[in-house]
Recover the amino acids of this structure.
């Protein structure tokens, strides 16, 4: 109920226009949406690639943060970034319980992710990526990330 | 006194430490906790000249660090009051709901002139429904109370209890008050809740985080639960908290599969990937690095010439080097398994201890009826069972401790102590299996063995604790 009202409003606003480089792909219900983003600036790491983001909403959205991950398929790789694991899980304080504010929305999260990529100069995965990806069985919301880097 | 100790008056009542492994502590019940809280509120209230309700808010805001609160209050009264939501204007303009022209709520995106809205002094205004939903999620869902922030992005303003009062319903308010009381214990560095289910006691202990590499502070709650004041896990003496954490993590990663891997696989001599040979010939190609090698001798396949499927090249250098590396990795796994199996065995036995104890009670009743022994006289069985449980718990952790221990001239003494305790435990454990009719005649023997187990445990724990304190142990990881 709570989420439905808000997501309905977000959807109609997004359908009337989104910032450059952000595209709504699928929003058939109020549980799971897909969006595509690309980096608009000339950052050589992300040239010519489009990334797909999956949003999952709880009924208590936006009081609770959505779960947001990158998803991979033939035409959408997982972007290289020191805070993005190769399984698509994103380590960003904005998406964590303590960093989330209900004032954020799907569009603002997309913009944050876009600018997180734009500002990145390192074509690398987070330290311990291989281990994390192999052993992680938790949902993103249940992982206790330690945000050691405040400059993202 | 240099630290902000909650219950100064009681500190001198602490009995002197008996053994090196024992830590001083005091257990408090729910009434005592509340009483201490009220005493401190009263004391600070007198110093600041603020009413007790406001003082309580100030103290919670300052995480019960009263010295710092008093200092800051004396220095910049206005600022301190303001940040806790207690400034002049808050008193003359108490928080209230408002209807605002041209308002749109940033949470639900609703607008309209009839919407009741609320904002704290920070000015982040939201509709009442959203604010209420936000607070109830924080309080009921996430168990927060004293430090719920304004829902605005990046706003650090804490929702004060007066604001909360006008926003939420009674059930949430009750939960909020409970949680506030809990924060007293959580905020105090020298207090910790007993982690046993439904236990309302808290333990006070002076051991701090920075002391943990040198001391293992096991405390004993009035409810009967032994736990570590450093990490709240079950008693894990003699292993320090950081080793316990590492060990548990390692077991979680390794134990399930380690046995199987050891029995069925080898590592690729080039990239060390673990490989299972599930049939076929000896010509192996590593999936990962494409290295081709012989399963039998682990040597490079290209050197095998035509002697396929029948490796007899045991003397070749490339093969023997690969086998050396293999043996090393195998050895480290075997070393881990050695300690893990013993650890797991005692853990398993510790789980069975519960059954043993229940059986013991039954045996005690049976013994009373079959012999002329009184209830007091059969207590030796309960004592034996308890000693057994405690010793097994200690033994279990000696194996995790030993796994990380680097060999020096002290390790031999440790291993002797471990062996002695283990033998004492097995001897006593065996006696529990004896039939009831023999137990009566074994009473004296069993009491001796119980005392001996307890003594061996104390010797082991004293030795490890003393050497930990003076930094004599060398570990193959950093603490």
């Amino acid at each position: 109920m709570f989420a439905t009202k808000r997501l309905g409003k977000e959807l109609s606003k997004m359908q009337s226009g989104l910032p450059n480089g952000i595209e709504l792909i699928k929003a058939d219900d109020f549980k799971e949406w897909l969006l595509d983003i690309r980096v608009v600036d000339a950052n050589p790491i992300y040239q010519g690639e489009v990334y797909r983001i999956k949003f999952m909403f709880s009924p208590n959205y936006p009081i609770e943060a959505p779960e947001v991950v990158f998803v991979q398929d033939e035409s959408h790789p997982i972007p290289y970034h020191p805070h993005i694991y190769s399984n698509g899980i994103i380590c960003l304080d904005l998406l964590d319980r303590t960093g989330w504010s209900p004032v954020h929305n799907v569009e603002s999260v997309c913009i944050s992710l876009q600018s997180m990529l734009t500002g990145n100069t390192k074509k690398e995965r987070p330290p311990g990526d291989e281990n994390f990806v192999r052993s992680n069985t938790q949902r993103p919301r249940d992982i206790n990330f330690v945000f050691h880097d405040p400059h993202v | 006194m240099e630290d902000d100790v909650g219950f100064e008056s009681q500190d001198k009542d602490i009995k002197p430490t008996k053994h090196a492994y024992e830590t001083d502590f005091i257990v408090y019940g729910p009434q005592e906790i509340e009483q201490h809280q009220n005493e401190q509120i009263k004391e600070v209230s007198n110093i600041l000249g603020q009413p007790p309700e406001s003082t309580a808010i100030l103290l919670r805001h300052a995480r019960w660090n009263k010295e710092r609160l008093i200092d800051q209050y004396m220095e910049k009264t206005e600022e301190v009051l303001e940040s806790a939501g207690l400034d002049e204007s808050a008193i003359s303009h108490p928080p209230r709901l408002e209807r605002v022209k041209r308002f749109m709520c940033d949470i639900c995106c609703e607008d309209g002139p009839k919407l009741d809205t609320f904002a704290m002094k920070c000015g982040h205004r939201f509709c009442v429904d959203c604010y209420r939903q936000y607070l109830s999620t924080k309080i009921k869902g996430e168990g927060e109370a004293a430090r719920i922030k304004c829902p605005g992005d990046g706003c650090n303003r804490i929702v004060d209890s007066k604001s909360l009062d006008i926003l939420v319903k009674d059930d949430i308010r009750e939960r909020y008050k409970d949680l506030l009381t809990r924060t007293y214990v959580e905020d105090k560095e020298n207090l910790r809740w007993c982690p046993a289910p439904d236990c309302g006691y808290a333990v006070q202990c002076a051991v701090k985080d920075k002391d943990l590499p040198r001391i293992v502070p096991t405390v004993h709650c009035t409810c009967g639960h032994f736990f570590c004041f450093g990490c709240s896990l079950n008693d894990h003496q003699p292993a320090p908290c950081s080793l316990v954490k590492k060990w548990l993590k390692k077991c979680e990663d390794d134990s399930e599969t380690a046995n199987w891997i050891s029995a069925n696989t080898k590592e690729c001599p080039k990239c060390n990937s673990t490989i299972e040979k599930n049939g076929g010939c000896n010509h192996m190609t590593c999936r990962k690095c494409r290295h081709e090698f012989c399963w039998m001798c682990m040597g490079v396949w290209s050197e095998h010439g035509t002697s396929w499927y029948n490796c007899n090249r045991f003397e070749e250098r490339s093969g023997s080097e690969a086998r050396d590396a293999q043996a090393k990795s195998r050895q480290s796994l075997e070393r881990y398994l050695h300690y893990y199996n013993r650890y797991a065995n005692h853990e398993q036995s510790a789980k069975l201890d519960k059954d043993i104890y229940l059986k013991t009670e039954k045996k005690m009743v049976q013994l009373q009826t079959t012999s002329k022994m009184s209830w007091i006289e059969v207590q030796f069985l309960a004592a034996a069972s308890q000693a057994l449980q405690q010793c097994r718990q200690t033994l279990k952790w000696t194996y995790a401790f030993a796994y990380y221990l680097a060999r020096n001239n002290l390790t031999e003494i440790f291993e002797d102590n471990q062996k002695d305790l283990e033998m004492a435990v097995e001897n006593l454990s065996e006696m529990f299996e004896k039939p009831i009719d023999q137990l009566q005649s074994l009473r004296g023997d069993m009491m001796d063995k119980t005392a001996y187990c307890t003594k061996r445990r104390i010797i082991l724990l004293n030795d490890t604790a003393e050497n930990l304190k003076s930094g004599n142990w060398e570990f193959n990881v950093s603490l």
Remarks:
- The first strand of chain B starts at residue 26 and ends at 28.
- The CA atoms of residues 52 and 235 of chain B lie 39 Å apart.
- Chain B touches chain A through 17 residues (CB under 8 Å).
- Chain B has a mean pLDDT of 84.
